Amino acid sequence: MPNFNGAIIVHTLQLLKLPATLRQIVNTISTHTDLPEKAIKKPVKQTLEMGKRLGFLQKMDGRYYLVPMTFESLMSEMQALDMTDKPEPKLKSKKEKKTFKSEGSSSKKQLKLTDKVKKVADDSQTSTITMVPSELKVSSKHKAVK
C-alpha cells in the first residue's frame, strides 16, 4: 500500500482548482501516478482526514478544499502557539515575601538538616554486600584469562 503525504494531496487539489470529493482526488492521483484506485483510496482518505484535523484542509458537503494560507496568518498562528507554551510568571504576594524573610534564622538549621540527609544518603550508597560466605574467598590477585 503506497504511503501518501500531504504534499501530494495539496498538489492534487491545486491541480483540480475546485473542492473535490475523495473519489475525484483518488481518480486524479491514480491517473497521474499509474497506481490502482483501490490501492490508494484508504491512504488518501487517511491523509485527507489528517489534513482536516490539522487545519490545512476543510470539508463541506463531502468535498475537500485547501484552507487559504497567507504569511500573516501563519505568523499569527505561530505567535499564538508561542504564547500558550510560555507560562506566565507567578508573582509572590507581600505576605509570602515576609514569611521568607523571617525564616532567615532557621536557614542554618535547615542546612544542617540537609547535610545530615546527604550524609545518610551517601552512607546508604556504599556496598550492599556486607558478608561473604566462607566458601567464596575473594582474592586481590587477578588470574590471567587464557
Describe this entry's structure for a reader.
InterPro entries: DUF4777. This is DUF4777 domain-containing protein. This protein has a two-stranded antiparallel sheet. The model has no long low-confidence stretch (mean pLDDT 74). 10% of the residues are buried. The protein is mainly alpha-helical. It has a domain of 61 residues: Arc Repressor Mutant, subunit A. The radius of gyration is 34 Å and the shape is elongated. The longest helix is centred in the first third of the chain and has 18 residues.
Secondary-structure map:
Layout (H helix, E strand, L loop, with lengths): L5 H11 L5 H12 L3 H18 L2 E4 L2 E4 L4 H15 L8 H9 L4 H18 L22
Antiparallel strand pairs: 1-2
Helix pairs in contact: 2-3
Distance between the termini: 55 Å
Radius of gyration: 34 Å
The side-by-side strand order for the widest beta sheet comes to: 1-2
Number of strands: 2
* Helix-strand makeup class: mainly alpha
Helix content: 55-70%
CATH classification class of the domain at 6-66? Mainly Alpha
Q: Uncertain runs with pLDDT below 50, 5 residues or more?
A: none
The general outline is elongated
Order of helices and strands: HHHEEHHH
- Portion in beta strands: 5-15%
What is the average per-residue confidence, as pLDDT, rounded to a whole number? 74
Please name the CATH topology of the domain at 6-66: Arc Repressor Mutant, subunit A
**What's the number of helices?**
6
CATH architecture title of the domain at 6-66? Orthogonal Bundle
* Sheet with the most strands, sense and barrel status: 2 strands, antiparallel
Pfam families: DUF4777
Protein name: DUF4777 domain-containing protein
Domain DUF4777: 1-66
InterPro entries: DUF4777
